[in-house]
Automatic annotation (TrEMBL):
Domain DXP reductoisomerase C-terminal: start-end pairs: 271-387
Residues at which 1-deoxy-D-xylulose 5-phosphate binds: K130, S156, E157, S186, H209, S222, N227, K228, E231
Family membership noted in the UniProt record: Belongs to the DXR family.
Cofactor requirements of the protein: Mg(2+); Mn(2+)
Stated name of the protein: 1-deoxy-D-xylulose 5-phosphate reductoisomerase
Enzyme Commission designation: 1.1.1.267
Organism: Aidingimonas halophila
Keywords: Isomerase, Isoprene biosynthesis, Magnesium, Manganese, Metal-binding, NADP, Oxidoreductase
Binding site for Mn(2+): D155, E157, E231
Residues noted as binding NADPH in the record, renumbered to the chain: T15, G16, S17, I18, K42, N129, E131, G215
Reaction(s) catalysed by this chain's protein: 2-C-methyl-D-erythritol 4-phosphate + NADP(+) = 1-deoxy-D-xylulose 5-phosphate + NADPH + H(+)
């Protein structure tokens, strides 16, 4: 069906992996979508290219130095995109009244405030930024209800589960006869490895994912299985589930993107090629379906689907995340903050792969959990956990083990 006027979209994190896939889908449907704003942190050259290509009304970048550079480039290329800088500008393009849809694809805690701003403005929010939900779950979902935002999960597993549940699933899983959510995991690049083998893994090895091409932070998270841990927490908030209702299933082919099990024995799965443009197109067009540029699934080429239980001994991050969710309050905030610091340190060559889980565990043990009652508390505990993580890291630099 044709829409009266095009739908207006802001893409936050436009220069990232999800941002790029989003722009690819949008460009396939110029009659359906208009781009209001594109945002990025530092990659000004890339943002310039995107502005020339997609002609958004606005572009937002972190520093004013980069904004000035971008303004000059765009004006000499006769592109009339207005360029702004800073967090206030980021929040403005998330809540602007002319915007219908916000793609939340900033990585990490930095995405929390702008994503929440989009929710509070009642937008259709396409949520890729799982860290925002992990940090503020209760508050975030409450804001979705209060402001009548439409929250559509883009993380492929959650998008799959969303497709496997009845539309009105927010009344609770048991109400609809759902007994379990089966969260599939590829297992990452080190599936089957033991702790000793994992010790000397390099950042480039960790970022070479067998099935998905993604940003470096989530790639490391996939390698440690912290990504699955964050996703378990994400699933609990999105689908009003308790941690024991979410079972992680290792499925190396990444063809089934997740499943819902029902009390009558039915298990409904969503399948497709591992290409983020599928969930992105789903979120953009819901409840309609549009072409995503994704190749049709060739089951004969897939040939087989394998399943196994995760190895939580070699990959303790999954257990740490589940325990943090069970502890509740700010425990997931601490988990996420410590993990962000740890992943950055690992990528910078400051500590070994196995140090990530150890650092997260140490910070969780060193921090006290409080109720995540409001945003100030969440941001405070996030900052506190980061300071603690940096203290442990500094000790590690001076020779103490992690
Ligand atoms: P990426 O590193 O490729 O891109 C991150 C984007 O966020 C970039 O545009 C960057 O400029 C911007 N950004 C980073 N820090 C920022 C800051 N402090 N302020 C403002 N902007 C900032 O990451 P990605 O792989 O596209 O992942 C984005 C989010 O989507 C993450 O939360 C990730 O967990 C989630 N996700 C990604 C995939 C995937 O396939 N890549 C799948 C599922 C979920
Ligand atoms: Mg995922």
């Amino acid at each position: 069906t044709k829409q009266a006027s095009p739908c207006t979209v802001t893409v936050m994190g436009a220069t990232g992996s999800i941002g790029g896939s989003t722009l690819d889908v949008l460009a396939r449907h110029p009659e359906r979508y208009r781009i209001h704003a594109l945002t990025a942190r530092k990659s000004r050259e890339q943002l310039e290219v995107l502005c020339r290509l997609h002609r958004p009304s606005l572009a937002v970048i972190e520093s004013e130095v980069d904004a000035r550079w971008l303004r000059e480039q765009l004006s000499s290329a006769n592109v009339d995109t207005e360029v702004r800088s800073g967090e206030a500008a980021l929040i403005e393009v998330a809540e602007a009244s002319e915007v219908d849809v916000v793609m939340a694809a900033i990585v990490g805690a930095a995405g929390l405030l702008p994503t929440l701003a989009a929710v509070r403005a009642g937008k259709r929010v396409l949520l890729a930024n799982k860290e925002a939900l992990v940090m503020s779950g209760g508050l975030f979902m409450e804001a979705v209800d209060t402001h009548r935002a439409l929250l559509l999960p883009i993380d492929s597993e959650h998008n799959a589960i969303y497709q496997c549940l009845p539309t009105e699933h927010r009344q609770g899983l048991s109400h609809h006869g759902v007994t379990q959510l089966l969260l599939t995991a590829s297992g990452g690049p080190f599936l089957g490895w033991k702790a000793e083998q994992l010790a000397s893994v390099t950042p480039d090895q960790a970022c070479a994912h067998p099935n998905w091409s993604m940003g470096r932070k989530i790639s490391v998270d996939s390698a440690t299985l912290m990504n699955k841990g964050l996703e378990l927490i994400e699933a609990c908030w999105l689908f009003n589930a308790n941690p024991d209702q979410v079972q992680v299933v290792v499925h190396p082919q990444s063809v089934i993107h997740s499943m819902a099990a029902y009390s009558d024995g039915s298990v409904i799965a969503q399948m497709g090629n591992p290409d983020m443009r599928t969930p992105i197109a789903y979120g953009l067009a819901w409840p309609e379906r549009i072409d995503a540029g994704v190749e049709a699934l060739d089951l004969f080429q897939v040939a087989r689907l394998d399943f196994q239980a995760p190895d939580e001994e070699a990959f303790p991050c999954l257990r740490l995340a589940r325990d943090a969710m069970k502890s509740g309050g700010t425990a997931p905030v601490v988990l996420n903050a410590a993990n962000e610091v740890a992943v950055e340190a690992f990528l910078a060559g400051r500590m070994p792969f196995g140090g990530i889980a150890n650092l997260v565990q140490d910070v969780l043990e060193g921090a006290s959990v409080v109720s995540a009652g409001n945003l100030d508390i969440i941001l405070e505990e996030d900052a506190r956990a980061r300071r603690l993580a940096h203290q442990y890291l500094a000790r590690h630099d001076q020779g103490a083990g992690l």
